[in-house]
């Protein structure tokens, strides 16, 4: 038999992916593409007072800025990831005149917090980050680039806060958590009928510990309320969140400018250079 608590933990307490961060609380310089950029790493408290680890990258020299205020891309990681993922896209974004903001969701990476809620409370983390950078950084407009939980968070947040972002790249967002839970169980070798039997127990444990219901996490209704240009991305070999999730989100999406790119690879595979390039060009075109 299956211990339900082990399964619950796979959903709300995946292993915390911590990393050394010697420059927290100060700025340091890094060179990408022959230009020098300043990385500012700082804490931003969320609504619960949990400190979120955040980094903001912009040109060191004002003469390298595309304007007094510059467009910014906020990159958001998946449930077992952290903000360092976003630095993979730094050179591509920075070279096109966009700044980059990355942060660890509460309960992830180096941020405080106990639970991961797959977008339910993460949307409130994003809200404080957006507010912080509009207030403290020279930002003209904002885009979201989210992967998995980060993509779900982008949709849930923007549905509640229209007008705060200009466009989004959404890589492998789920459409509903119910399907994901069944899929996760199947991957762990638990038969689907057993999952159905366990569901009330799972629901209760998740509700008690992390304060949300599986039914709270439907991204279709949120997608229907979003209107900014969007590019969906999905790995064609993703067996955890199958590509149909993105197809459903795209069908439900409210805005007229929407497209989907599939690329080889599974849920956690690095994205191909051509898909990354297309995403960066899409962001650039819709941020200016």
From TrEMBL:
The region annotated as signal peptide is none
| Gene3D superfamilies membership | alpha/beta hydrolase (3.40.50.1820)
This protein is called Serine aminopeptidase S33 domain-containing protein
Per its UniProt record, what Pfam families does this chain match?
Abhydrolase_1, FSH1
Domain annotation AB hydrolase-1: ranges: 72-178
User: Locate the Serine hydrolase domain: which residues?
Assistant: 198-278
Q: Supply the source organism for this entry.
A: Strombidium inclinatum
